[in-house]
Amino acid sequence: MTARMPNPTVLLPDAMKGIQNLFKAVHQGGAPGPVLELVHLRTSQINGCSACVYGGIKSALKNGETDERLHQVAAWRESDLFTDAERAALALAEEATRIADRGDAVSDSTWAAAAEHFDEKQLSAILLMIGLTNMFNRFNAVTRAPAGATW
Predict the structure, then answer these.
(1) How far apart are CA 71 and CA 59, in angstroms?
(2) C-alpha to C-alpha distances, 74 to 9, 96, 103, 115, nearest whole angstrom
(3) Are the beta carbons of 57 and 70 closer than 8 angstroms?
(4) Quick one: how far is CA 113 from the chain centroid?
(5) DSSP string, the chain
(6) Largest CB tally within 10 Å, which of 7, 47, 128, 136?
(7) Residue 30: phi, psi to the nearest 5?
(8) 136 pLDDT more than 60
(9) What burial letters (b/e) apply to 137-148, b meaning 16+ CB within 10 Å?
(10) What is the C-alpha to C-alpha distance for residues 132 and 101, in angstroms, rounded to an integer?
(11) Does the pLDDT at position 56 exceed 80?
């Protein structure tokens, strides 16, 4: 696939400065790194963003994630490789990404499960990661960014 244009954040450097500050906040929120990696990957899988799936796997491996777990993310419900906290975060990522699929963007049960494992600061970091991932998935889908693209 050939990209239509570079990622908009490359062409608008002030946008990238703001996004970098959001990512900095995400990583200061206290949510475990593996959870952030998993929600990024699952969100990107749902949106079919090959560039973000590629980058997410690369980042997760660099940060100590295993191939076995990464291969199971798409089928996390059927896998015994994820903790209850990771499962709660993955369910939150799925519902927050598919907000048009139901009347209530995130069900009370999904929210309660996530809140059982993460405090409000950690939940904020997870939600910001999900939102940022969705934004980048959309940029990449619209511009047809190929997997492995570097700008």
Answers:
(1) 14
(2) 28, 16, 24, 23
(3) yes
(4) 18
(5) ---SSS-HHHH-HHHHHHHHHHHHHHHTS---HHHHHHHHHHHHHHHT-HHHHHHHHHHHHHTT--HHHHHHGGGGGG-SSS-HHHHHHHHHHHHHH-GGGSSSSS-HHHHHHHHHHS-HHHHHHHHHHHHHHHHHHHHHHHHTPPTT---
(6) 136
(7) 85, 0
(8) yes
(9) bebbeebebeee
(10) 20
(11) yes
Pairwise CA distance, residues 138 & 82, whole Å: 27
Write out the two tokens for 147.
């997997």
Residue with tokens 């291969």: 71
- pTM comes to 0.94
Q: Of 47, 117, 126, 50, whose CA–CA distance to 92 is shortest?
A: 126
Query: Which pLDDT belongs to residue 149?
Result: 63
Rounded to an integer, what is the distance from CA 143 to the centroid of its chain? 19
Mean pLDDT of 71-89: 98
Read off the tokens for 39: 């929600």
